[in-house]
Design brief:
Helix content of chain B: 40-55%
Number of strands of chain A: 0
Order of helices and strands of chain A: HHHHHHHHHHHHHH
Shape of chain B: globular
Radius of gyration of chain B: 20 Å
Strand content of chain B: 5-15%
CATH topology of chain A: ABC transporter involved in vitamin B12 uptake, BtuC
Structural class of chain B: alpha/beta
Number of domains of chain A: 1
Number of domains of chain B: 3
Distance between the termini of chain A: 55 Å
Order of helices and strands of chain B: EHEHHHHEHEHEEHHH
Oligomer: heterodimer
CATH superfamily of the largest domain in chain B: P-loop containing nucleotide triphosphate hydrolases
CATH architecture of the largest domain in chain B: 3-Layer(aba) Sandwich
CATH topology of the largest domain in chain B: Rossmann fold
Largest sheet of chain B: 6 strands, mixed
Distance between the termini of chain B: 35 Å
Structural class of chain A: mainly alpha
Helix content of chain A: over 70%
CATH class of chain A: Mainly Alpha
Radius of gyration of chain A: 20 Å
Chain lengths: ~290, ~230
């Protein structure tokens, strides 16, 4: 019974194996990136970036159809253009980054939707927006795996700088020249992970696998390393649960994965040591020195 | 050495110039190569909600020594523990930084400076919002650094504190007014000059540039400020 519900779908069907493999690889890299995104208060930037890659992917789609390589390259280019454009507006004018980012991504998103609908049907649009985790081909899996390995290497190498830069940017600038390079490297990681994620989950939900597990993990621990590990665990768990839900209840797979992660998030908000329930119960007890 | 002056007189700017966070618009700032410096800014950009322990915060001070990939050795950990002990925060290692009070945070930041083991220590208004006991402890630390032949530059507003504890003072009012032994630098006459200079806001002040450059030169030529052409518009 247990075996039939939880294991059999993955044994029996190749597409389920691929979906699980892809989602697992994505969780491994996107979740730690999400932790840093959250700690830098850039969660919404991640969201905006996810929308921003759409016109690039759409341009790839217009020119070559539903092919992974052109859509990926297009998405990367669009992501970098929007990140740099919004950053430049914020840096050289009076406008702050949140407003310029919002402006850029809205323009980008509408442009993308417009471009997809020029050629494709609404099914294609749904594919691009919500992903096709149940139809990942080899190219897509290889891309996701490469991005995953690259991200983990980069985080391993530059993790300490990233933490220092998040914790005390001014101090970090006074002891090291790595501040700006690390910031841009990090933005690059965000964009590549989003581009890899949007194959599986679509542009709208790619960012979800970054933010939701990280946001949930924040409630359980006070250490960055533990938070990263926990977010990965939540990501893996919700990928598996979401895929099973989607298989058994015939739900669309991307939203099913996201909603699983969302449930973990709500559970964390309420029941975790730093969540609503316990922090209210414990309010009276604190250390006196 | 204490750096003294009114708001906007250029104390923080001087420090940022030395650290290299700001580049001088004219002139140069030269630091002997190999000088290790530690800088504690006035408005720290420290994110207090960041999930880190006091230990992690103080360990940031190891960066100049260990950099990106160097392993933190047992000796380094010993140095961190020792630093926490010196600032009176022993036992706080595992406490998360969002639970610290203002004074405790300032102590922790001093511990980080200790760990940095710097030759030149720049502290921008480190005594803001600390109680008298913390103040005494921090002053003791600064004196200890002096005894170790480190150069310590501190921005201070409390002139009595400067006269009592700092051998040298630099008085700024958008340009150096006086520099030397504390009591002499902070003489009534110098302070008056600094005040006259201090808050002049001139709507018609000439733009910095060729013409202003000329004015600067004349200003330096004159001793008294009343004759300074820069105030001519008022």
């Amino acid at each position: 019974m247990l075996y039939e519900t939880f294991i059999l779908p993955f044994v029996e069907f190749g597409f389920m194996q691929r979906a699980l493999f892809g989602a697992f690889m994505l969780s491994l890299s996107a979740c730690p990136v999400g932790v840093f995104l959250m700690l830098r208060r850039m969660s919404l930037t991640g969201d905006a970036m996810a929308h921003a890659i759409l016109p690039g992917a759409a341009a790839g789609f217009l020119l070559y159809g539903l092919e992974i390589v052109p859509m990926t390259i297009g998405g990367l280019i669009a992501g970098v253009v929007v990140a740099l454009g919004a950053g430049a507006v914020a840096r050289f004018t009076i406008q702050k980054e949140d407003a310029s980012m919002a402006a850029f991504y809205l323009i980008s998103l509408s442009l993308g939707v417009l471009m997809v609908s020029l050629r494709g049907s609404s099914v294609d649009l749904m594919h691009v927006l919500f992903g096709t985790v149940l139809a990942l081909n080899n190219d897509a899996l290889i891309l996701i795996a490469m991005v995953s390995v690259m991200t983990l290497c980069a985080l391993g190498l530059f993790g300490r700088a990233l933490v220092a830069e998040c914790m005390d940017p001014l101090f970090f600038r006074s002891v090291s020249r790595l501040g700006s390079p690390v910031h841009f490297l990090f933005l690059g990681l965000v964009v590549t992970n989003l581009v890899a994620g949007f194959q599986a989950l679509g542009t709208l939900l790619a960012v979800g696998l970054m933010i939701l597990p990280a946001a949930g993990a924040r409630f359980w621990t006070q250490s960055v390393a533990t938070m990263c590990l926990l977010s990965v665990a939540i990501g893996l768990f919700s990928s598996a649960v979401g895929l099973l839900l989607s298989y058994h209840a015939s739900l669309p797979s991307g939203p099913a994965v996201m909603l699983s992660a969302g449930s973990v998030y709500f559970f964390s908000v309420i029941a975790s040591p730093r969540g609503l329930l316990l922090s209210h119960l414990r309010r009276s007890a604190h250390r006196s020195a | 050495m204490a750096v003294v002056g009114g708001n906007g007189s250029g104390k923080s700017t001087l420090m940022k110039g030395i650290v290299g966070l700001l580049r001088p618009m004219s002139g140069t700032c030269s630091i002997a190569p190999g000088t290790r410096f530690a800088y504690l800014p006035q408005l720290s950009e420290l994110d207090r909600s960041f999930p880190a322990r006091v230990l992690d915060l103080v360990s940031l001070g190891l960066w100049p020594k260990r950099g990106l990939l160097g392993r933190h050795s047992a000796e380094d950990r010993q140095a961190v523990t020792q630093a926490l002990l010196s600032v009176g925060l022993e036992g706080f290692e595992k406490r998360s930084i969002d639970t610290l009070s203002g004074g405790q945070m300032q102590r922790a930041l001093f511990a980080r400076v200790l760990v940095q083991d710097a030759d030149l220590i720049l502290l921008d208004e480190p005594f803001n919002a600390v109680d008298s006991r913390t103040l005494t402890d921090l002053i003791a630390l600064i004196k200890h650094w002096q005894d170790q032949r480190r150069t310590v530059m501190v921005v201070v507003h409390d002139l009595d504190l400067v006269r009592e504890h700092f051998p040298e003072a630099l008085l700024l009012a958008r340009r150096p007014i006086a520099w030397g032994e504390s009591r002499q630098t902070l003489s009534a006459e110098n302070l008056l000059r600094a005040r006259q200079f201090g808050e002049a806001w001139d709507e018609n002040a000439p733009w910095c540039g060729q013409q202003a450059h000329h004015l600067h030169e004349t200003m330096i030529g004159h001793d008294g400020i009343a004759a300074s052409p820069a105030r001519g518009g008022m």
